[in-house]
Structures are given as C-alpha cells and as structure tokens.
Amino acid sequence: MLNNGSKKVLILGYSLTGKKSAEYFLKKGYSVYISEFSSMNKKDEDDVKKLINLGAKIEFNGHSDEFINNSDFVIISPSIKDDAPVIKKINSLNIPIYSDIEYAGINLNYQDKMILITGTNGKTTTTMLTSFILSEKYNAPYVGNVGVPPLEVLEDENNLPDYLCVEASSYQLHYSKKLMPKISILCNITPDHISWHNGMEGYIKDKTDILKRADKNSYVILNYDDPYTKTFESDIKANIYYFSLSKIDYENNCYIKDNSIYFKNEKIIDTDEINMAGNHNMQNVMCAIIAAKLIGLDNETVKCAIKKFKSPSHRLEFITKINNTSYYNDSKATNPEASNVAINAFEGKQVSLIAGGRDKNTPLDEFVSYIKKRINKVVLIGEAKERFKCALLNSGFNNIKEETTLEGAIDEAARDNPDIVLFSPACASFDMFDNFEARGEAFRKYVLQKRTSE
User: Which of 177, 229, 288, 378 has the most other CB atoms within 10 Å of its CB?
Assistant: First the structure.
C-alpha cells in the first residue's frame, strides 16, 4: 500500500462514481471522506458498511465542514451543479475539483492513452465499438458515462489497460477543465440538458472546450455533417479528422460511397456487413474506424471486429420478430433528437412508434416533422402524453393512441401488423421507471413473452 494516509480526498456524492472512486483511493492508502446531500437509500446499507469497514468516513443529509476542510482534492459526482452551495464552499477554499475521468487522465498519466468520446447521441455505441475494435490487439476497456468508472479498471497496477475508451457526458466534461486526451471524438450536438448548463451556449461550451484545448500532437474527430461543427472547428489546433455520410474532399476523411465505408479513400467495410441499423450507426462506425486507424490497427482487423459487433442494449436494439413485425428497443432515446435518429433508420417501412415518459420540454417541431414523414401510428404513454399529442394534432397527424402502461402500448402498436414496432420514447424514464435501462428491459421482457405466446 502506498503511503498516502496523510492525503485526504473528498468524494462528493454517493453514486457509482463516488463508490468506485472511494474503493480506489482506500486501496491506495488515502484518507477517504464521502459526503452525500441526500438521505441514504436502504439498498445502499451493505455497501456503506463495507466502505466504512475499509476505513472510509461517510455522511448523508448534507456536507459538513469536517468533511470539506483540509481536503487535498475532490472527486465529484458529475450531476452536481456548480452553483450548489457546497461547490461554492470548496472553491472558496481553493480545493481542486476533478471528475474521475480527468483524475485518471491527468493524475494517473492516461491522457496519451485516452480515446474520449462525447456528443449528444451515439457516444455509448461509439465508445463500446471503439473498445471492441481495439481489444483485438490491446487491453482497451470502455469506461466513463457508459457505466464503468475509470478508477475501477485502474486499481490493479499489474494489469493496467493499454488504452481507455472513455464516454464523457457534458456533466463530466464540465468538471474536466484541464483534460487533454490524445484522441477526442465529438459525435454530434443537439439540445439536451439545457437547464443544467444554463442554456444551449453553455451546453456547447462544455462539449467543445476539451476539443479547443487539444494541441498539435493530438487528434480531434468531428462530424462533417453536423451544422455545429462549423461554429468551432477554426478554434481547434489539433489534427482534425472528419467523418461524413457522403464523400468529402478532405485528406483526413472517413465517408460512405456506394454503400461502403472508406478511410482516406481506402475501402474498409460494406455497410451491409454491419450488424446495426440506421445512418447514425454508420456515423458511429466511422468514428471508431478513425480512432482505430490512428492507434495503428490494420484494415482487416478493423473490418473483422466491426462485423462481430452488435448494438448495445437499449440503443436501437433489435429484440425479435413476431408475425413479420420486428421489435426495436431504443429506450436510451431520452430526448426528441435521439428519437429522430431512430425514426430515420426505417425509411420506407410501416412503423408504429411508442413514445412518451417524463417530458424534458425540449422543442418538438423537428420530432413531429419526422413522425409525419416516417411513422404510421404513434402510441403515447407517460407524463408527456398531452404535450406530445397536442403537438402531433396541431401538425395534422391524427393516428394517435394513448395507453397507461408500456405493455398496453406494445399491444396497441402491434395491432395493425406493421413492419416495425419502435420503442423510442424521446423522454426521460423517471415517471414510470427507475432509469432507461429498466424501461428497456420491461419492453424486452414483454415482447419476448408475446413471442412465446404466439
């Protein structure tokens, strides 16, 4: 054990990030203090006892001076807003605040071994696919917002990763003020989490500051087709690589031509060899191809890995086919922009869409426009039903049904035997489910029950 007992680390927020960070620092010999504003959940009692037995001090229901004062640094749970009183207190004491991904990058020397992926949509699939491809040759786990804290995979000094494939949320990037990964990918930008970032301008800033910090020895991968790219690309000093759904005349390019993906004008893979649907997934694949080529993988290794990869759960995930109707679980679509991407994946098909949940109150104009072009029937559930229904009716779309349960919505969506039943809620899950994963699992479970009963 390292002699870090004199160093005090404050873990701000008892979350998955907080718990795994605490375990890491306890094993490294730090004095660990965990401070949580909310009350302790009964389900956390065993884990809290375990951490206390390992030497951690833990408080719930507030942030005391005893826990904050004399801390050498803070590891923050990313959802805490920076105008919270506890953040103001920490800043007044000049205590450094790190996200766990920034700590791994800067303090544990992983910046040059880090492929960081961010964006409003597609970042989880891109992160997992990049990890999957690199793992053909290297130890390259996916970590970050994808659900695996980076410090969890950095505990064993005898088995350290060659690379970290990091999914970074806008919250995590907000608290990563100095992080400079070797490779940074921005999948796209659309409105999301606007209130947390105090407006779209703040959201864009938190997504793009990390790109602007990158130096000439780093690489930035950008979506050539995204309109926001043009607003900040001139501020980037790093080597820029672009991806596009059509051929672009640019040296560092990845694009689609004649149903094949090319990198620097070399064919990598045919799109029909990819086990994922939709143009957005072709963009995710191109991001991963560029990253893998920058690391040095050969074309055949990249192609073989992509052919083996399947969509992660809850992200336009094919579940099964019943009586010629295919069922897709896109529960991760927690905003209208994400659902737009899913809707566009099934052009020319008869599609019944299940949408609704806890409304984020983001604009619906584009969402409604895509529904009118691509969707035959919409089944609404959850708290957002009324606003979504009004927006659709006002646009002239009338084939709308309402249900009180997800199971009822699935039955209604399948009633007319469409080609596709698409569950892409365009809303958060918290009105009916604990999270989007639980919501997606409920969809999967009921659909598979329907299949066995047929």
Answer: 288
